[in-house]
Design brief:
Elements lengths: L15 E8 L5 E10 L2 E9 L5 E7 L6 E7 L5 E6 L4 E6 L5 E7 L7 E10 L5 E9 L4 E8 L5 E5 L6 E8 L5 E7 L4 E7 L5 E6 L3 E11 L2 E10 L5 E7 L5 E5 L1
Antiparallel strand pairs: 1-2, 2-3, 3-4, 5-6, 6-7, 7-8, 9-10, 10-11, 11-12, 13-14, 14-15, 15-16, 17-18, 18-19, 19-20
Length: about 260
């Protein structure tokens, strides 16, 4: 669609499920998801469209085990990261604009198949580092999240997969210092959650909204602080949408219901 909502092109795909789309500065679009071959046999797929809607290339990642979900993010130099998960780990691949694979990384190993639900997201900072984060559920019902930071060559810089039990991450932004600010919810008591990490992976704060029940869905940052939006139920109100502002240290400044 153009900026007025008029259709520019459309395509129909059979036996595909798409999960993510991103675009570069030249107007090319990158769509990723899974291509289904048969029951319980699907592979991670990445497709590039030019600005006229012509498919320039398609890449299917074949691994010994099935892939699911799939996320794509385009860096400022028009290279493309795509990520998904197999039965026993997550995988990330970096491609050049012609579709040639440059680097591959595996992360969050799960050799026993303990985690049966994962929701994967990714984002690139101003320095070209890429972050993958997800919430996942153990077979016993316990929820966890994880965060992995890689440089532009997909070399792991740090990760946290141990301190995020019951902390479900839904969105990420970078503040004025390029530190990481997450939002989501605390699974144990279902309260909106905000978390900050510095660039070196130190968890600086994790704060729940004590007087509300619900989730923060989105987060944005400016020089004045951080803005969180979500669905929250307070004791004396019905469930409402909330805009919640904090200072850079996560302290409450104002809210709008």
């Amino acid at each position: 669609l153009d900026s007025s909502g008029n259709e520019i092109f459309s395509h129909s795909f059979y036996d595909y499920t798409f999960y993510s789309v991103d675009s570069d500065q030249q107007g090319n679009s990158y769509v990723t998801g899974v291509k289904v071959f048969s029951f319980n046999n699907w592979e991670l797929v990445l497709i590039k469209f030019n600005d006229a809607g012509v498919i320039e290339w398609e890449r299917v990642l074949s691994t010994p085990t099935s892939n699911s979900q799939g996320r794509a993010v385009v860096a400022s130099d028009s290279t493309i990261y795509v990520a998904g998960h197999t039965d026993y780990s997550h995988i990330a691949i970096k491609y050049d604009p012609l579709g040639n694979p440059l680097y591959t990384a595996y992360f969050f190993q799960d050799p026993w198949g303990d985690y049966y639900y994962r929701s994967l997201h990714s984002q690139v900072d101003q320095s070209g580092n890429i972050y993958f984060y997800a919430r996942c559920q153990e077979s016993g019902g316990i929820w966890h999240s994880f965060i992995y930071k890689f440089n532009s060559s997909l070399e792991q810089q740090w990760h946290d997969s141990t301190t995020l039990t019951n902390e479900c991450l839904l969105d990420l932004t970078f503040d004025q210092s390029q530190d990481l600010v997450f939002c989501g919810y605390d699974y144990s008591n279902y309260r909106p959650l905000r978390i900050k990490y510095n660039q070196n992976g130190t968890k600086e704060w994790s704060i729940v909204l004590e007087d509300g029940i619900g989730e923060f869905w989105n987060v944005a940052s400016s020089g004045e602080g951080n803005f969180f939006t979500g669905r929250v139920h307070f004791a004396d109100t019905i469930e409402k949408m909330l805009v919640y502002m904090t200072d850079p240290n996560g302290n409450f400044k104002s809210q709008y219901i």
